[in-house]
Automatic annotation (TrEMBL):
Species whose genome carries this gene: Micromonas pusilla
Region (Disordered): 1-75
Reaction(s) the record says it catalyses: ATP + H2O = ADP + phosphate + H(+)
Main subcellular location of this protein, as a coarse class: cytoplasm
Record protein name field: Vesicle-fusing ATPase
Annotated ranges, domain AAA+ ATPase: 127-275
GO cellular component term, pick one: Golgi stack
Ribosomal protein as UniProt keyword: no
Keyword hit for Chloroplast: no
Length: 348
């Protein structure tokens, strides 16, 4: 009578080391009692990252239950905002390497929204309703803009790619711009101070907010009309307390100077490459699920990784971790295939 086949092993992330992946067959697990897990992720070889790979053959195997699901992000309320102010860190909310930038935003954008509207009026304050995030690609500008809405318990943010606004039909581009602000205007008219915040994010805002007169004759008319329409809406926000406009760009120098004056995109924050502490935070964020699931080896040295990845952006560090996972999975599948072949030979 043929022996029953054991269930295929659950995949994990393989640890790096000096030895090759084991070639002799592993011991058979007892059916329906344990799951064979591949070794966990060890320290990647940074020198191979530029060629699209992070090296490291497999180590020894061990037995463990299947990993738990990825942990959910913590909910955010007014109490959490005060905790963040005291801690000065946003790592547990998925933002790494941008503590200083976020604290600047926090003081200028959040503070006036954490107290009663009546207090703000008596102080003669006004909310910051427009900000610009600029810097090199991959540094987390869009991530910061998205998290702002969560931290302020706002409506889900509207993320608009700059070129999507522009249309070839006369008047359509301006109408698209007006439509973005219409829900906020309607809600504020009906609910006043009780309306939730509307966050409108213009990604690649330089595509629609270039200096007026900088395009060709035909394109310049449509482009200038769109710039004028957005400036009008930004000015109109002075009577609305439920709107925050965030512009994102890699080329601040291309923007029309009028959009950067006070009362419009008045808060301008440069989001640069992370320092070593920031890179450590980013590595911790992108390996958190593996750590929670028992898939990260004890010999992973995040401090060493942060020290050897100078001038890496957040996006590049995320790609580095993803490359390690892909290479580990490939090695695991190869080792798993050898086991299946050996198992078939033993059954015959």
């Amino acid at each position: 009578k043929p022996k029953p086949k054991p269930k295929p092993p659950a995949f994990g992330v393989l640890s790096s080391g000096g030895a090759r992946a084991p070639t002799k067959p592993a011991e058979k697990p007892k059916p329906k009692t344990t799951v064979v897990r591949a070794p966990t992720l060890g320290r990647p070889d940074i020198s191979s990252a530029s060629s699209g790979g992070i090296a490291g053959p497999a180590g020894n195997r061990n037995l463990m239950p299947a990993p738990p699901p990825e942990p959910e992000e913590p909910e955010i309320g007014q109490g959490h905002l005060r905790d963040i102010l005291q801690e000065g860190s946003f790592e547990k909310y998925g933002v790494g390497g941008l503590d200083a930038e976020f604290m600047t935003i926090f003081r200028r954008v959040f503070a006036s929204r954490m107290v009663a509207p009546d207090v703000v009026r008596r102080l003669g304050m006004r909310h910051v309703k427009g900000m610009l995030l600029y810097g090199p690609p991959g540094t987390g500008k869009t991530l910061v803009a998205k998290q702002l809405g969560k931290l302020l318990n706002a409506h889900p943010p509207k993320i608009v790619n700059g070129p999507e606004i522009l249309q070839r039909f006369v008047g359509q581009s301006e109408e698209n711009m007006r439509d973005l602000f219409a829900p906020a205007e309607k809600e504020f008219k009906g609910k006043g101070d009780k309306s939730k915040l509307h966050v409108i994010i213009f990604d690649e805002i330089d595509a629609i907010m270039k200096a007026r007169g900088s395009g060709g004759a035909a394109a310049s008319v449509v482009h200038d009309n769109v710039v004028n329409q957005l400036l009008t809406k930004l000015d109109g926000m002075q009577s609305l307390d439920n709107v925050l406009v965030v512009g994102i760009t890699n080329r601040r120098d291309l923007l029309d100077p009028a959009v950067l004056r006070p009362g419009r995109l008045e808060l301008q924050v440069e989001v640069g490459l992370p320092d070593e502490r920031g890179r450590r935070q980013i590595f911790n964020i992108h390996t958190a699920a593996m750590r929670a699931g028992g898939m990260l080896a004890a010999d992973v040295d995040v401090d060493a990784l942060a020290a050897t990845t100078g001038n890496y952006s957040g996006a590049e560090i995320k790609g580095l971790v993803g490359a390690a996972q892909s290479h580990a999975l490939a090695r695991y599948l190869a080792a798993s295939g050898n086991e299946n072949e050996n198992e078939n030979e033993n059954e015959n």
